[in-house]
Specification:
single chain; alpha/beta; seven-stranded parallel beta sheet; 8 helices; globular
Amino acid sequence: MDLGIAGKTALVCGASKGLGYGCALALVQEGVNVVIVARGAEALEAAASKLIAARAGGTGAAGQNPSNFVKHVAADITTPEGRAAVFAVQADYDIVVTNAGGPPPGDFRSWDREAWIKAVDANMLTPIELIKATVDGMAARGYGRIVNITSSAVKAPIDILGLSNGARSGLTGFVAGLARSGIAAQGVTINNLLPGAFDTDRLRNTAVGAAQKTGQSVEAIQEARKKTIPARRFGTPEEFGAICAFLCSQQAAYMTGQNVLADGGAYPGTY
């Protein structure tokens, strides 16, 4: 299927690896020009090189230098300085994929105000700032796609992830209102993409921590986790990226304000 987004320009956050990289890869393969941002310069440069190679073999690269269509900015997108660096490279975007690492787990009794402010700043206010900086330009041009990578915990909260539950739920409520405002009639959609268990560094690190606490092997921890998922496996960043690319497509123009859950069937609810 031609998603109809070749030649569009996208900002993809947290794109040096994991789910953010999966989204950037899927967009690049559709001929989208991407600006990727992450804090780690070395990992980001490696990701950019892989994306350039993918662009060279993908849509819209014939006779053109693919390196012109993949740019990277090593910055902390959760800071005003980081966002300024990104918009200095490219002022306008047709597609924005927001993504920031989740706050640490723990007991809410141990979190002070600073911990809460940090979580809200990264996982609620930063996406809102990026939306604010881009949504009016999208509306003026008659096309825009914003996809916020949040978490399956928005649908099924996890007690030890209270910081994430709170901050991401705040973003979800904000998006529910904004997506249904006047911008919907101007060709701009805003959706949230909720990952469950995907094969990423974060998932592996969580398994390592659990193994150290329980004395079990990492493999045993991961196999036990897979058994809780009806698909009996973890998702891949590539298939997550494909869902993101579809939400950015011309074909998804009638989807907005939605929370799209990708978790292999783990969420037990009907709605």
